[in-house]
Please model this.
Amino acid sequence: MSTVASALRDRWPAFAGLAVAVLTALALWLRHADAAAVVTASALVYLGAAALGLRWAAWPVFGVSFVLITIGFLVPAFDPSLIMIVLAVLLILYGFARGRGRPLHGLPLQLVAMVILAGLALIAARQDPALSAILVAFGLLAHAGWDAYHHRKDRVVVRSMAEFCMVLDTVLAGLVIWLTFA
Model:
């Protein structure tokens, strides 16, 4: 197998994260939208996997958040962060009802991350573009660190999701700053 094919097979989550980051930045630039909802989505993915008790569920939760963010790009009056927060509340209720309060690095810690990141996203969405970009980039970079930690510990989400998100969050943070200040 060629080196390129081997790299694509082994690092597909990183390449997919890069592609989604570039496409998201392009959509942000074309629609003059902000990326605050992506920060909310980053926390929702982990929360969903923890609440459902299924590490692989991070991928379908990502799919739902991706669809919601896409609708937000296409329908200016639609706020995907608010819908994702409602989904988070439902997942939290379900998770605790199913006894997912332990271990602490699972649903309880993901709940704290969701509150912080969704709160940051809601604040960022209501600021001028420069401050919003800085807040969004900060939230994405903070979540990239979260991804790196979970990838190393192999907890909460499957490693492919942690790797995908780590690249997506890091690249998109840089692109958001570049698009805003270039």
Q: What stands out?
A: The two ends are 41 Å apart (CA to CA).
